[in-house]
Amino acid sequence: MTDTRLTVLGYRAGRPDAVSACSGYLVEHGEVRVLVDCGPGIVTQLVSRGLEHRLDAVVLTHLHQDHAFDVVPLAFTRLLTKEPPPRIPLWIPEDSVDTLAALDEWAAVPTDPVVGRPLATAFDVRPLVRDGATAVPIADGVSLTAHRARHAVPSASLRFDLAGRILAFSSDTGWCDGVLAAASDADVFVCEATYLTADPAMLAEHGHLTARMTGELADAAGVGLLVVSHLLGYDDEESFAAARAAAGRVPVVLPARAGLVVPVERAVR
């Protein structure tokens, strides 16, 4: 199997269920491992794979609970061990740093020096500039560019360059220039499909896509492989069918599933 790959750890929107955790994805390039999003249930997935201490970085696209709340148990898991691993970078949208600091204060155990500030102790919190131009070096051959997504809170569409292979994430977003730029000509694109149907006002207010829009966006961006993700759980098959039907020229369209592994390479029809 290629050493550049994506593993879906969780793909649910809103809450985990018996099948899958909420949003969380493992990006691997050689020995480099980056966790993208850390929703409820993701720490369990990491621990089951023995990866909780083997991450090189974490990226949170935004701070809604289904994408971020397991970052607190991840911090405790890394700190409350015989030999805590070194701090690793934690990137979040640049205007969410204060919000994360408030979460850190809420989660703190002030009488315990190890977890008095669990997030700041376990992670090197770094602002992720969402200008579509600033490349963040993560490791040799791995860099990240963030784009401004359209959501109810600050949200980042992500574009990873993995030694020339492009892996993109929509985050939660409505249709906008940022997500189109992040996904442009990507080899693999993970895109949310929150709603099967929704009226324009709901989409504008919450900043989400319908399944059909997910397929249309992937087609417009010219991606090689689309992973349809961020599903609510009660219409998964219909949502996937709608996204696939709208995906046009996209060579491969896959439904997100827990444990799905996708090589990051150009798919051909």
Describe this structure in words.
27% of the residues lie in helices and 30% in strands. The protein has 269 residues and is α/β, with parallel strands linked by helices. The chain has a single domain, classed as Metallo-beta-lactamase, Chain A (4-Layer Sandwich), CATH 3.60.15. Strands 1, 2, 3, 4, 5, 6, 7 and 15 form an 8-stranded mixed sheet that branches. Helix 8 packs parallel to helix 9. The longest helix is centred in the middle third of the chain and has 11 residues. The chain is globular and about 55 Å long. The model has no long low-confidence stretch (mean pLDDT 95). GO terms for molecular function: 3'-tRNA processing endoribonuclease activity. This is MBL fold metallo-hydrolase. InterPro entries: Metallo-B-lactamas, RibonucZ/Hydroxyglut_hydro.
**Class from secondary-structure proportions:** alpha/beta
Q: How would you describe the oligomerization state of the chains in this entry?
A: single chain
Q: Which class in CATH terms?
A: Alpha Beta
Global morphology? globular
Distance between the termini: 20 Å
Stretches where pLDDT falls below 50 for ≥5 residues? none
Tell me the total number of β-strands: 15
Count, helices: 9
What is the helix content?
25-40%
CATH architecture: 4-Layer Sandwich
Order of helices and strands: EEEEHEHHEHHEEEEEHEHHEHEE
Q: Per DSSP, what share of the residues sits in E-state strands of 2 or more residues?
A: 25-35%
Radius of gyration: 17 Å
CATH homologous superfamily - what is it? Ribonuclease Z/Hydroxyacylglutathione hydrolase-like
Biggest beta-sheet profile: 8 strands, mixed
Average pLDDT, to the nearest integer? 95
* Domain module count: 1
Instruction: Fill in the CATH topology.
Output: Metallo-beta-lactamase, Chain A
Domain Metallo-beta-lactamase: 21-230
GO molecular function, one term: 3'-tRNA processing endoribonuclease activity
Protein name: MBL fold metallo-hydrolase
